[in-house]
Write a structure and sequence with these properties.
- There is one protein chain.
- The chain has 4 helices and 6 strands.
- By secondary structure, it is of the alpha+beta class.
- Strands 1-2-3 form a 3-stranded antiparallel sheet, with no helix packed on it. It has a 3-stranded antiparallel sheet with strand order 4-5-6, with no helix packed on it.
- A hairpin with a 4-residue loop joins strand 5 and strand 6.
């Protein structure tokens, strides 16, 4: 816990860049690589004259998508006003404690509000969950599909049938994962 990236936001950003992009920055929008050894850089560090440059801000080249991005885009740290050093320290504490850590303990350790600690803990736990990004049934397992109707759509009167309910579609792998999706329309 004495590492500099747990206490300094600039060091935390540099550490995260070295872990996420060991060979230079990569645009999360289009996949362009910012190889610093290449003469024509696809990704450049942003340093504008009109607005002061934000540290850690990159821009994709003129030939690619031209989007701005930082190391936090596409991660659990994205769109958060919580300092990056607090994020890294919270992730370290959640991963290193044998029996887990409560939001109250995070609140006391990090010196943030309980609401912030709860948000940190839940987002980090969600990032660590097994999402199972592969194809269902790819190992030869059986996949079953089914739909159901639940609840009631707002503004709809109860009628006979399922026209006033929300439709949910689910794929179930026997002895494995379940994926469900709310179906919109009509």
């Amino acid at each position: 816990m004495n590492a500099p990236y747990f206490h300094d936001d600039e060091k935390a950003r540099e550490y995260l860049e070295s872990v996420r992009w060991p060979n230079g920055p990569v645009c999360p929008h289009c996949g362009c690589i910012g190889g610093w050894a290449i003469e024509t850089k696809a990704v450049t560090r942003k340093n504008g004259r009109v607005q002061p440059a934000r540290k850690g801000l990159y821009r994709c080249s003129e030939n690619a998508c031209r989007e701005q991005f930082s190391v936090t885009v596409g991660t659990v740290f994205e769109s958060s006003k919580i300092p990056l050093s607090n994020w890294l320290l919270a992730a370290y504490l959640l991963c290193s404690s044998k029996k887990g850590i409560s939001a109250h303990q995070l609140h006391r350790t990090l010196g943030v509000t309980y609401k912030t600690a709860w948000f940190l803990a839940h987002r980090i736990r969600h990032a660590m969950s097994d999402q199972g990004g592969g194809l269902m049934g790819s190992g030869g397992g059986v996949v079953e599909a089914d739909e159901t109707y639940i609840g009631r759509k707002p503004g709809r009167k109860m009628t006979r049938g399922a026209g006033h309910k929300h439709m949910v579609f689910a794929l179930v792998e026997r002895g494995g994962n379940v994926r469900s999706k709310h179906i919109t329309g009509k």
